[in-house]
Each structure stands twice: as structure tokens, then as C-alpha cells.
Protein 1
Amino acid sequence: MLLEGLHIPLTTPFHPDGRLNLPKLAANVARYSKTPAAGLIVLGPSGEPTLLSDDETREALRVAAEAAAPEKVLTAGISRNSVSATLDLADFAAELNYDAALIGLPSILASNANAVGEHRLRELLTYFQTIADRSPLPIVLLSVNHRSIPTEAAIELAAHPNVTGLLNVDRSESYPAAIGKILARTTSVKRDVPVTSIFGAVTARMKMAADRTVSNLVSAITLTGATTAIAEPPSQPALRTRTKSVGFQILAGHTPEMLNGLRAGAVGIAPAFAACVPQACYEVFAAWKDDDQALAEEKQARLREAAHLAEETLGPASLKFACDLNGYFGGLPRLPHLPLTGAQRAEVELRMKELRN
């Protein structure tokens, strides 16, 4: 699966009483589908995934898949502590025609992950390798500050044929250097992925729609009722694809450092702040892609303060309130996360002033 471009990590809407708000999730997905984003990440780290039950997780995945445009790459955040529970959700996401599964370090292996001993490292590798062996979906590894995947482990996992990439949301200053190190050590990883005629990603839902189009074609014999043979040209595929060779694909997930991540070799970006300002985040990627470094720096700089406040300082409530300010439904976070105070809301509004739609 091709991971280039902007992938938007969705927030998860809730009713004021804490129930999952599926109509608002569908509305958000439909609107994000009209942006230039390449893909959507459902129940990523900014979607409060650990606060959802397995049934709620399935409902959120289902509703998002039904509302998403077919050309958007869909990634399902399905990490669970056990291998079997994670694979159950991978099977479910595959049935919904998701394109990839986002798998992070389980909490039981997360303590002191960067200083793991040999036994803990074997446990970590076994967890991911076992899932990758059996998952019907390609795996995108998730590395975040409190559940960081050690660099050496990421390098070893990159060689697995069903591990397609890494979403790095590490907020440390060494994060671009870690991306560079992983890519330098995985240059031998090469895979052919299907792409469209303009080198966009080919999603499972695009293939399904194309198959339906072909199956609905009516033959000339059926129309004419002829009993003699009628020469018919072979049917042309509704979806024309080609292949592209890619290496181990990394997505830069920390807004203040996403440009440095791209320069270090990331193929795309997936900052949590994109849920609030998808167009502004995409403009950073587009300027970098066009090799207009001055413009990319300018576009990144205008995001930095607001993104720092929304992603790091005030937590999920601020990210959701920033979504509300730009017409995406954010709503309240689920307890134990608390809503913003009046003063905090005013601060977010001030930082978002130049980023309002």
C-alpha cells in the first residue's frame, strides 16, 4: 500500500453523556474525504482509542469505512494487548475493506521500551511478527513517546513482507535523526505496490467498485438473444493500474517536526493537528513536494504554536475544540479527559485565529 501524502488522524466524537456519536463521525469523514488528504486514520493515537470498548471500536471502524470516499487510504487503529484480540480486529477491518492496520506497542510491553533487555526485545518482536504473519492487512507500526518502538526493533520489523511502514509520533528532538537511521538501515527493503495512472494509491474500495462495474456489464449476446457467435472485444478493466517500487515507508506524525521528518526521508505526514486544519497541513507537504523549501518553512511556522498547544499541552479536549472552530465536529473528550476551561478555550481560539477556515 502506498502511504505518500497527508493522512488525517481522526478524532472520535462523543455525545455529552459519553456515548459514541456515530452520525458526527460519519459527517466528519465525509468532509475530510473532500480534502486533498491521501488517507484517513481511524482510531489513531489522537482518537482516544484506549477509551473505546471492542464493540465501539468495530462500530467506529464500520461507520468511517461507509462514509469515506473510495480513493482515500483507510488505516485502522486496532492495537490490543493480546495478539489474538488484535488479529480479531484486523480480520474485521479487512472485511470492511480497510487498506492497512495501525499497530502500536502494547501497554504491557511499553515500560522502559527504549532500554529493553534481550527477553523484552524478543517479546516485542514476537508480538509484531506474529500479527504480521497472520494479518490480512499490511501493518503500519505506531511509535509514540510513551510507547516508542526501539529503533533496532523497527529496523528488524521492516524486513517483514507484511510490515509496510511506520507512523512516528515521537516528540523528541532526535526524532528526524531516528527516521534517517531507520531508512539508512532498510535500503534493501523494496516492494512493488499498485498505483493509479497518476501514481496515487489504489485502495481496496477502489478495486471493489471496479469489480462491481465489470460484473454489471451486459454482453452483446444477452442483449440481442443471438444464437450464433458474436465477436466481442475483451472487456477493459474499470480501474487501470501500474506498479511502483517503494521502500519502507515512514509517516511523520509530529506537527512541529513534520517538515524535518520529510527531509529525513518520510514519504508522508500524519500529524494529529491535521484533524483541525487539513488544508494547512497539506500545504506543508505540497510545498515540500514541489521543493519550495522557503514556502514549506513558512507554512510549517504558522502551525507550530497552535499545534503545540492542541497536540501536547492541553490534550484531546483542545484538539477537539480546535476542530469545532473549523467546522469539524470535535465535541467533548471522554472521561477521564476533561473539557477545556473558559481561559483554555480563549487561548486555543487565539492561537487558531490565523488558521480558521
Protein 2
Amino acid sequence: ENLVDLTALVRAEACDIGLAFDGDADRMFCVDGAGRPVSPSLVTAVAAERMLARDPGAPVLYNLICSRIVPETIRRAGGRPVRTRVGHSYIKSVMAQTGAIFGGEHSGHYYFRDNFRADSGLIAALILLEALSARGGSLAEMVAPYDVYVQSGEINSRVADADAAVITVADAFADRGDADYADGLTVSSGVWWFNVRPSNTEPMLRLNVEATDAETMAAIRDEVLALVRS
């Protein structure tokens, strides 16, 4: 809902891109020339490619709810993808340990080694504009090659016992994919993955699902939600 005014202005003024920042400008979101929001995972992939062109072979961080296109892009650009938990403190710590040049979160936070490992929506916006200027064409055209998966977006469910709900989901998917507990529960198969993790501040579980097609994404999403909310 916070992008409504930006979307309307981009369409009314026939802009090429619209940029939105939170209050302290450490997060950045954007919409394309048609006013459609661009996933922060796609922005992370574009920025990682630009950063690796300047520092080939370097580590690049991404959190575990980013799209699969992010580590795929990092590898394709010659970098080393490093998967992290969600959150500032984890990412900044891993950046210090690995010397990563850049890190992106699906929440719109972008971290830069040369900015004291701090996140900056303004630097991310400049890199995105640089990429768009160098490529030419529209933002939609630029991100289209990265937009190959279907994501659910983050879905919150209020629960009485978050740990018990996670165990219920883990049991139901025990034989259907590879599971890890780096941050909540992540289950991955060849064509889909999901992560369900407890909120740090509320009796809430947060679900993210990604798949190669919309039908599969919706099926996994609905199955996990039914288990969480039962």
C-alpha cells in the first residue's frame, strides 16, 4: 500500500522507473515504467552482477528467502554465493567473516563492503540506475531474464505454538525434499522450496514459497498454510 502514490505518479508522468525508500533510506524498492513492483530478489541479482564485474570471484551474500535466481546469477557472474539467515546482525557478521563485497535481502536491504558493511537503499538505487543506463531499454526488459520463478511473497500466520507448528510441517514434508533449520525450516526440491520461520517479536510464523510455475507454488503454499493454521 505504500507504493500506491509512487505507482500512480510513474504512470501519470510516463517515468522509466520509480524509487521508494523507508524513513532512514536503508531499504529501497522500485517499480517499473508500468508501475509494477520489481522484486528485491531481482534487484539483488542485478546488483550482484554489477558488483562482480568490478570484483570478479568475490563472495556475495543472500538471505535464505531470496529467489533461487540470486545464487544462480552470482555463480554465473563468477562469484561465490553465501547463504545467510534473515536479518541485519547475521548478514553483517557473515560479511565480516567472508569479506563479501555485497549482500542482498528479499526485504529490500542491500549491504556494501565499501560502505562499512552497512545497508544503503541509496547506493542500491544508484547501482540499479547505472545498470539500466548501461543496458538501455526499460527496467522491465532488464529484469525479465531474472524473473524465472514464481514467489508467494511473505505470508504471516498467527499461531499459539510456533515451534509445534514448524514440527508439524517438517513431519509432513519429511520425505519430499531436503530440509535445513538455518532459520526456521526450509524444505527444497528440484522445482520448489519454502521457508517457514517464527517471528522474533510476535506469535507469528512467516511463510515464503517459490516454484518454477504458479500452480506448483500455489499448491505448496496452500498445503503449508493448512498445516500451520490447523
Protein 3
Amino acid sequence: MVREVVLNTAHHFNWVNLGAAIKHPEQGKAFDLSDQINEQIGITDSEVKVIPWSGYGDDQIIRQLLEQEKPDAILHFTDPRYWTWLYRMEKEIRTKIPMVFYTIWDDLPYPMYNRDFYRSDDLLLCISKQTKNLVENVLKDYPKEEWQTQYVPHGIDETKFYPIINDLEFEAFKEKFYEGKEYDFVVFWNSRNIRRKNPGDLVTAWRVFTDQLTDEQAERCLFIMHTDPVDGNGTDIPAVIETMCDSKRAKIKFTNGKCHEKTLNYYYNMADAQFMMTDNEGWGLSLTEGLMAGNMLIAPVQGGMQDQMRFEDENGDWINFNTEFPTNSNGKYKNCGEWAIPMFAKTRSLKGSPPTPYIYATQVDVEDAGLSLLKCYNLGRDEIKRRGLVGREWLLSEEARMTARSMGQNFIDHINILFENWEPVEKFTIEKVDWN
């Protein structure tokens, strides 16, 4: 998403990017990507620099960049706990330039422990509609101006993820991957093998689905998992398959490791549907990529996945969230885009840790998930494809604005408003505290 934001705003903003990695071998070097960006987006005057760094940064590199690069604003995103060091110096920064947070939060209850993080930002761009409502409620005692909290969904480049038609190279790729076999129904999962993604539930749901089929039907169904088969943060998926599945009926194939977007689009085009069973999911980027390629969605009703399903209220309007209606996970509204098969939670539990004391984890039942796969299968490939293409058209629409170009324009519009209205904060504030 960083890359797409830069590519779709480089004609308007110059960028200095601190490129984070767990342990970057080229930390501290600087790479000027301006020529590559100019060529890629067809302009002549971009200025884009990347400075590799181990971790998300620290106060010293920020002070150095403020002095050397003299930026007009700082943009950061992901979980605010990765940025505690940045927030500790927010007064130092915001006396000179504003801070912009591209923020997301997965679920209720309202994360009051994030309040001081949100208070420390001058512009909060919210990835999901639910995030926007969460942020506004957390800040109800410290309300910001309306322009300071805005909905900016993730956007996908429709020229990178798209339905492939009559492409011999793709057909050869598919033939090799399928090893000469033919399938009537293919489901794709593109995600990390980690606990909250519930890979074991996905495997079990696939078994539940194939149990509803004849041997001949099951033989022509395939579940592709693009992930590391074994991960210490998740589980040993092959061991789960061995125990939970009949290998002659529940066909599952792995593809792992990073791949080029062209290859990833091949996988999406081989699939009929994207399938997820996450406990907590802020957005679900692989769903959007798959939908842009013409896949249907089979996913839990939570976080930004609700946005992508386009649930309608009693007036037929795309739902919004508020204090009285903070989530649709309980199924208040059932009507959604015909490209989606929503799965409503069977259970809800409150998880937490000292930094994030509470957050709901909503669980989809494996039996329900298996029947959701069956519902999609029973539509038939032609109807599945038709619905997926309707979903792609919606992503491209002015209502959804879920293209990379629209996301970039959202950034430009809202950051321009920030520059027009922003005023430096005082170097310190005095607050009266009642100790009684």
C-alpha cells in the first residue's frame, strides 16, 4: 500500500520513505527512485527517496530527517504500538509539521487505550468505515474537526489485478500448476500462516465442504493456499490436513514464497473465490485483489471486509457505522453485494494483552464455513464469474473508490486540506488535574 500511495501521489507530493525491515542489510543507505517513478507513471519531476531501516525507526533518525530533508508532514500507519517512540516526540514534531496517521482497528470494544495516540495526530485517515467510527468514539471527549477524521479505503491497481482473457502464457502456467488436471471449483487463500488467520479452520471447512460432494465432484475441486505450510506463528498445516482430511477427496495445494504481481494475478485468475476465516481482520487486502481479478468473496463479517461486501441498510444505501450501530457482525443487515457470501460469527470472545487489553475475536463456525463454500459451488462457474465481475465494477465505481488511483487522490485531497488548516501546537500544555 505504501508503494501504491507513492505511485499515485508522486505527481503532487515528493516523498522520503523510511523503508522498514526486521533487520535491513542496507540500513542507512539512501536510494533515489525518482527516475524509475517518472518512467512508471509518465511524469518528469517526481522526487522519491527510500532509506532502508531496521524496524520502524527511532527518534534520532526522525530528527536527522527533519533537519536534512525538511519534510512538510510525517505520514505513518499500522498498529500505533509500533510508533510509541514517535508519539513520545509528537510535541517536538508538531510544533514544526503535522503528523498524519493512516489508521485501522479491527474490532470493538472501543479501544480507549489508543486515545492518546489518536489525539497526537493532526489527520486521521481511516482505512475502514468501522475504524472511522471507532476513532470518533475514542475521541468523543477530545473531538477533532470534521476534516481531521476521514474514510480512505485501500485501493488496488486495476491494471495489475484483472480478469485474464485469451492469454496463452497464463494457460501454460495454469496447465503446469494443475499438472494436466481440470477443476470445476477453485478456492484461493493468500495470507500468512498465523494464529488469527485460522488456517486450521480453513482446512477443516474445506473438508466439511467436500464431504457434501460425490467422489467425482470432490475430485474436481481444489483449495490453493498461498502461504508458508509451517510457521511458528501459526501451525503445521500439512499435519492438520493429514489428520482432518481425506487426501483423495479434499484436494489442497500449496504455493509459498513471494511472487511477482503478474504471477499472483495468475493465481487469482485460476480461482473462483477468495476464502477467509480470520478472527480479527482490519481490511483483508487479498480479498480486494481477488475481487479486482473477478473472484467472489467468502469471508467473515468484520472490520473492513464489511466494506468490501457492501451491506445495504433498510433504504438500500451502503451502511455506515455509529455509536448505536458499530458493527454488522451480528447480522442486522443481510443484503450485500452479490459478489459476496458473508459468514456471520458464531462466537465472540474478548482477547487482549498488556499493550492492548481488550479486543473482540469473532469466530466463524467451520460447519457454517463449509456450507458457505457449498453455496458458492452450487452457483456454477458461469454465475460465479458473473458475480465476481460485478464486484470488480463496483470497486472501480465512484461509490467504492477502491482503486489505487482513487486512494491516491483521497490522500492528496485530505492532506491538502490539512495544509490549509493546520496550525503548529504549543511547545507544552498545562492541564489541571483533580487528585480527589
Protein 4
Amino acid sequence: MNTVKSEETGRRRKVAKEVRRQQLIQATIDSIAKRGFADTTLAHVSKQAGLSQGIVNLHFTNKETLLVETLRYMRDDYRQAWQAALAKAGDTPREQLQALIEVDFQPSLCDRKKLAVWFAFQGEAKSRPTYRQICEDEDNLYDDTLASVLQDVIDDGGYEGLNAQQMADMITALCEGLWLSMLVTPNSMNRQDALKISLTLAAQFFPKHFQAPK
């Protein structure tokens, strides 16, 4: 009985620990979106989370550790989203490409708070190797997947003169540009318009598979 009770207590502590970590990571996202990268402190994070700073130090040894884990969380969140979208899509190349385009503008990812934090980390990545490596790992996996899907579309439609990797780079650059527009000029760019622009581009290059939205 004591063994069972001890195991149950251990499971509860593990769950509670993970809940606290998620609270602190979310509070970090909120703080960076509100104050910016440099002005976010452990005190701000603990206050935002409604926890003591001692709890922050218990889960993360310092601010840099917390920031790295926050970036990893955002990377994993994005990866899980596009992989899930691809898994739910149909088997045709068009359905798979459309799923990858649409997921970039779904509400859970295309949120101004998350966009602000994502661009904040990208701005720091040039001088912080750890951030750069985390971003590059995600970029490489996504780019390889997108290029593979694009190659399937090109082959399926018999499109000539198109390079799948270059197309992947173009779509990624377009998406990031639209994200930045939504962050900086939200009154003139929203998720729906950004999705229409992306699908219009797809229709221009792949007219056998896509029609430009009205």
C-alpha cells in the first residue's frame, strides 16, 4: 500500500511540476509580448504567473534557461501543429500543401502575442548560438517537409520549370512577411487576408490544383 501511495504521490508531483513550468513559460511569452525581450525579468514572469520568484528559480536556474525553454516550447508547439495538420490532410499533394499553408494562419499559432515573441527570438538569434540552433532545427525539418510536398504537387501536375526547394523558400518568406504585417499593421492585414494571399500565390504556380480565392 505504501508503495502504491508513494507512486501516486510521485505522479501528482510530476504533473504539478509540469503545470508550474507551463505557467511560467506562458508568463514569459506574455511578458516578452508586453515589455520586449530585454526588459523581461524573472520578477515580471513570476508576477505574471501569480507565483513566487522562488518557484521560478526552482524550475529554471536563471533567466536564460527560462528563455531557452520558452523558445523550445514555441518551436515544439509549431511543429506539432503543422505535423498534425499534415496527418489529418488527405493523401493528395494538393490537400497536403493546402494543409501546410492553412496551418500557418490558424488562430492558435497566428496570434499577435506569439508572433511578437517569435520575432523577438529571431532578432536575438543572430548573436545567440543556442537560439539560432533551435530555430534552424525547426526550419530545416519544416523546409524539407514543405519541399517534399511541393515536389509531389509539381510531379502530379506536370509543372515545368519549377524548383521545389526554391518554392519552399518563397512560401516560407511570404508567410513570415505576412506574419510581420499582421504584427505591425493589424488594421490592414489579418489572418483571413493573409491566407487568401498565400492561396492566390499557390494558384498562380499550380493552376491545376488551386483556384485563387475570390
